[in-house]
Amino acid sequence: MKVEELIEISKVDITTLAVDAIVNAANSSLSGGGGVDGAIHRGAGPGLLQECIGLGGCPTGAAKLTGGHNLPARHVIHTVGPIWRGGGAQEAALLASCYRESLRIAAERGFSTIAFPAISCGVYGFPVDQACAIAVDTVWNFLDSAPFPMKIIFACFNDQVYDELNRALRDRVAAVGLD
Ligand code: AR6
Q1: Phi, then psi, of 169 in degrees rounded to 5
Q2: Which of 37, 129, 159, 163 is catalytic?
Q3: β-pairing verdict for 21-26 and 75-80
Q4: Rounded mean pLDDT of the chain?
Q5: 64 CB-contact burial (10 Å; exposed 0-12 / middle 13-18 / buried 19+)
Q6: Model pLDDT for residues 48-94, shown as the tens digit of each residue
Q7: What atom of ligand 1 comes closest to residue 25's alpha carbon?
Q8: Distance, CA 176 to ligand 1 centroid (Å)?
């Protein structure tokens, strides 16, 4: 199966997806927040916060797994994106690590469908075009060598993210065609 057939870019609220795991763009305390983090905690109910408290936080670029509680998704993978500080503070590498570490956990658990939000593209201020290129390239590279086929949904909550992810995917497909 071609890698591009495993990637779906969709305008959808990630909290509505009944998949093996949705990824949360959390902060390092894992104690909830605004944006997609707030929406996920609202959908999951207080049991998620209880479980998160027991995890002892999460460093930037890393990921941790919980149950989905009252969400339609069976699990939540919490990852902590970098705060944009101008580009010289390893932001790109840390963002790529968020996608890779989330997918590593998903593969270890045998999850076949995983949904991502646009990590760091909200209050953390990462330039959306750069973040979307990193998201697509990192997910593509992982799927290309994944131990089994995994389907990835990019859940977009705004038009700019949707457009930039589509652009990045088109660029990546075109680059493969030139190989
Ligand atoms: N479904 C899909 N995407 C969403 C949803 C949703 N329900 N809600 C928002 N988005 P942000 P960050 C999009 O700010 O930049 C929190 O307070 C949103 O449009 O949620 O990584 C955490 O606790 C944007 O494109 O995450 C952290 O403190 C994207 O999700 C901090 O924000 C990410 O925006 C993390 O900041």
Answers
A1: -70, -40
A2: 37
A3: parallel
A4: 97
A5: buried
A6: 999 999 999 999 999 999 999 999 999 999 999 999 999 999 999 99
A7: 21
A8: 31
Tokens in use for 123?
């209050």
Residue keyed to tokens 């660029």 = 171
Collect all residues with Cβ–Cβ distance below 8 Å to 144 and sequence separation of at least 6: 3
Q: Are strands 63-67 and 75-80 parallel, antiparallel or unpaired?
A: antiparallel
pTM above 0.85, yes or no: yes
CA-wise closest residue to 94 among 114, 117, 119: 119
Count CA atoms closer than 13 A to 152's CA, side-chain side.
Answer: 31
pLDDT at 179 > cutoff 70:
no
Q: Ligand 1 in contact with 37 (CB < 6 A)?
A: yes
Is residue 37 annotated as a catalytic residue, yes or no? yes
